[in-house]
Amino acid sequence: MTHKAFFLLHRDLPREGPGERGDVSWAAEVAGLRPDAAICDAACGPGADIPALLFAAPHARVVGFDLHAPFVDDAAARFESDPRVTVMQGRLVADAADDLPDPAALGPFDFLWCAGAAYFVGLRAALRAWAPALAPGGHVAFSEAVWLTDDPAPEAQAFWAGYAAMTDADGIAGRVAEAGWETVATRVLSDAAWEGYFGPMERRIAALRPGADAELAAVLDEAAEEARIWRTHRRDFGYLLSVVRPA
Predict the structure, then answer these.
(1) Residue 199: inside a domain, yes or no?
(2) What pLDDT digit, counting tens, does each position of 46-93 carry?
(3) CATH number of the domain encompassing residue 168
């Protein structure tokens, strides 16, 4: 897979993973989010969840960051006229080898939202890095792929074989505890949250198919297979949304 072909597919998608406004609303309610909260959207992608964060906290200050510059550009342009929102390039965990901001230096935040991206650095590492970014009483909400059954289909297991850290809800809670945090509440993302991701992607795949070269065709095939696997085995795996706080 080439980055060029991958981002040609993803550049105009509204979301970079499963999710819906209700997920943000639920997490904000669990966290007791104030209307004027300071919020961080970590790995915000093109900014899909920022409107829901602002709906949950209308007078909030929202800082979104993502490592991929085109996503940052898209999100920054989308919210350029909203003084409540700042979008910048940044990593989930600070890297001393670059000059991107340390998430901890952007806070303190009352609420840190991270949709489906903590796996890039590992959940325990992410939580330990984010702890200094939280204000007293602050919460983190993150979603992570999990098994929903003890006996997933072989095809589902093969699809997730490259993610050695795949576990279930109890495994996620254990990692949260190992990082020195506690789980406040969890829920599994709905089918609608997945369709909100795959529906636009499939329409984009159909639009790009005509005239696609070999590299792009391979990326399109892989994305279409991802959607097929979920639709076939969605009772075997999903995303668990967890609201957590330092213990």
Answers:
(1) no
(2) 999 999 999 999 999 999 999 988 899 999 999 999 999 999 999 888
(3) 3.40.50.150
What is the rounded (10 degree) CA torsion for 116, 43, 198, 85?
Answer: 130
* CA–CA dist 227, 195 (Å, integer): 9
Q: Per the domain annotation, does 222 fall within a domain?
A: no
| Nearest Cα residue to 239 out of 163, 135, 182 | 163
Q: Residue 44 domain-assigned? A: yes
pTM: 0.93
Q: For residue 97, how many other CB atoms are within 10 A of its CB? A: 6
* Domain extent for 158: 15-190+237-246
Give the count of domains, the chain: 1
